[in-house]
Amino acid sequence: MDVMDSNGALASAFGLAGHHALITGGGSGLGLATARCFIAAGARVTVVGTNEEKLRRAALDLGSSATFAPFDVTHTSAAVAFAASIEEKFGPISILVNNAGSTVKKPLAEMEQGDFDGVMATHVSGAFALTRAFAPQIAKSGKGSILFTASMASFLGIPEIAGYSAAKAAYVGLVRSFAAELASRNIRVNGVAPGWIDTAVFQKATATDPARRAKIEGRIPMKRLGSPDDIGWAMTYLASPAAAYVNGHILIVDGGALHAF
Q1: Percentage of the chain surpassing pLDDT 70?
Q2: Which of 49, 107, 119, 200 could share a disulfide with 163, CB 3.0–4.6 Å?
Q3: Where do runs of H (alpha helix) occur along the chain?
Q4: Which sequence positions are flagged as catalytic?
C-alpha cells in the first residue's frame, strides 16, 4: 500500500462522510466540540438545545454542514414528533449523541425531590425518549451509532451531586442494555466518560474553590485538564468505521484520573 492509499484508508476508517449526527446540548461545551470534530470528519450535524439564539450562533460558527433545532429533551411526550420533524426538515440521522445535561450541587439535607427529579429527567428520561424516537431512522442507515456522554460520576463517589451521579451511573446501564438490544438493527451503542475538561463550566465551578481545583489536578497523572476536543475526537472514533466492532463500551477520557492512586 503506497502513502496515498494509506491516507485514503485512514480517512475511510476514521471518517464520517455520509453521516448525519444529532447532538443534544450541542450549542456549547462538549456538545459543540463534538459537532466540530464530526464535521471535520465529514459528517453533517444538527445541534439541539433549549436556547435558540445560542444554537443559531453555534450553527453559524460550525458552517454550512450544520443546522440547529430547538428542543427541550425533558418534553419526552414530544420526542417522536421531534424525530419526525428532524427527518422531514434535514433528513434522517445516523448518529445520536445524548449529551444534554444539568446538575444541582447541594448536600443531601438541602437537596429537594424536585432537584433530583429534574436532573434525572434531563439525563435519563430525556435520553431514553430520544433514543426510542430516533432508533428507527438510525437503523435505516445500516451504519448507525448512539452515544452517551457519561462522566467520572458514573464511577466515582462525588459528594453533593446525588442526582447527577445517579443519572450518569444510569447511562452505563442504558449503554449496555441498548447495545445488546439494538445490535441486531445495525446500531452500535457506546459512551464517553470525560474526566475534568477545561470548559467554561469547569472554570466557573472552581474559580472560587482553589482547594477543589488542586485536588482535581493532583489526581490526574498527566497533570493537566483535558480539552473539549479530546472528548469530540473520542466520540468521532466511536461513531466511525474504525470502531465497527466496539459496542456497549464506555470510553474513559480522563488523563488516567480514574485509576490514579
Answers
A1: 98
A2: 119
A3: 3-14, 29-40, 52-62, 79-90, 113-120, 126-141, 162-182, 200-206, 210-219, 228-239
A4: 164
